[in-house]
Fold this sequence. Notes:
Layout lengths: L1 H16 L16 H4 L5 H12 L4 H4 L4 H10 L10 E5 L4 E8 L2 E9 L3 H14 L4 E2 L10 E4 L2 E6 L2 E6 L14 H17 L1
Antiparallel strand pairs: 1-2, 2-3, 3-7, 4-5, 5-6, 6-7
Helix pairs in contact: 1-7, 5-7
Amino acid sequence: MRAVMLTAALAATTVLAAGCGGAQPTGHGHGGHAGHDMAGMSAQQMADMDMGAASRPSDAATMVCGQEIRGAVRRTLHLRELPAAPTSTWRRTARSYTCRYRLADGALEMSVQDAVEPAAGRAYFRHLRASTPGAMRLHGLESLGLPGFETSDSVAFLKDGKTLQVRTGDLAGSALPRGFDRQEVAYSLASAVVACWAE
């Protein structure tokens, strides 16, 4: 079953990735016209701007609540329509962004530990894997070329210093598509986010 699910997830995320780039929030990066706008700034103004950006979640983190991922939730769980807009929580000191999707038959949660420095992100991922009961390392194609681990109802990946975790333990059995378990639903949704991050 995992092989069939993996093939389907990769095919779906290839299509999904084509629409991921256009809906990202703006104003968090330094691309576009930022260089021109910063030309007249003092060093202190630029430092203040950097501190402000560091206090907010990145575009990659907030993508787990975005329209493309809402669509991935609908397709993965075979819902007739998009799920209601999820609720999000940003814990600034921990740099943790959490998105919770409330569904008719339970809920699922996606979170991103949004480390600014890749080394800090790698250290967080190692700690999370070591402290998660039942964590099993993903290997080969299932790892999507990234450090990753899974449990019976969650999947986590590390990309560019950011740790994505999808948890499906609060989903009722009736919410699962035929032939899928909670782990496979988590994997499918995580692969959709990773596809968007790669776009």
